[in-house]
Known about the structure:
The complex is a heterodimer of chains A (85) and B (270). With 85 residues, chain A is mainly alpha-helical. Chain A has helices spanning 7-34, 43-56, 63-70, 79-83. Chain A has two domains: 1-37; 41-85, no CATH class. The longest helix of chain A is centred in the N-terminal third of the chain and has 28 residues, at 7-34. Chain A is flat. Chain B is globular and about 50 Å long.
Amino acid sequence: MSIPLNSEQVLDREYLEIRGKILELAASLDRLERAAGCVNEDNRMNLISQGLQILLQETDQTKAAQIQMLFSRVYDDTWREQFEL
Amino acid sequence: MYYFDPHIHMVSRTTDDYETLAKMGCVGMSEPAFWAGFDRGSVDSFRDYFRQLTDFEPKRAAQYGIQHYTWLCINAKEAENVELSREVIKMIPEFLDKPNVLGIGEIGLNKNTKNESTIFLEHMELAIQYNQQILIHTPHLEDKYQGTRMILDMLTGDSRIDPARVLVDHVEEHTAREVLDRGFWAGMTLYPVTKCTPQRAADIIEMCGAERLLVNSAGDWGPSKPTAVPDLILEMRRRGHSEALIRKVVYDNPIEFFSQSQNFSFQHPE
């Protein structure tokens, strides 16, 4: 099943919303830079950076699923042995 | 359009919310047992909660023409207390014959720990023993993918579990397809920040199809929106989807899933 709207209709509908979300992100990053201290070594900054790069990549996977996986803990299929369950 | 909210915690909501939901087309709901915002200290505390779910809430809902159903369990957060969890699991059968009880839920994982997994398996055993349907909570944020995979491991590792009688809730972009591909029903929870927006839920419906897919509001004591299902209805209409498709997701699917429960006696509104 696909979305009934064509891409131009989606863009017309969402352009201002996307613009607004990018602006919010930009302002958040500015706020981080203006604040005292440094969080460059914080792994969350690394995740944010990787997330932003995903938005511009062209792959077979959806961007939303890739972002979800980026921010997910790793699944280990030996968990039952580790828990002795 | 009439709709059925398959996962909403009405004990957290005011009677005004029942009235608003009825005005927006809600004619049925199911309320899984969950965390109260604090850890309860005794099995009697859960017994009182189950009385509230099986006696008081159905009456409150009925005042507005809403048919109320429920699910019973001790939730994943409190499952860290294994001793209390086992007392609660032992007590649950006292309530399984109440007319609005659909099954065991929302069981699941929270931080994906050994104790949570142990109690999940014991809830599964209870559901099998009493031939109950199961409603499952999957963890939030960074724990969701790992926890969902662990839950699917436990469910598919027991041949007595029929996936068609299990609803795995709070699926998102990275978990929905696997849940559906393994034959389970999947629920999307429309909830600010930690779960899914109506727009993203509509995307998932478009990508995965509407078979065995439900949508709910959660509507708990957090910053949730009990009228989130009508938000999805509006979003799908704005995209040009048919009324039949929308109705399938918000009405036909939940009723089809719940109809497998012996206590489900839903009356379609005239």
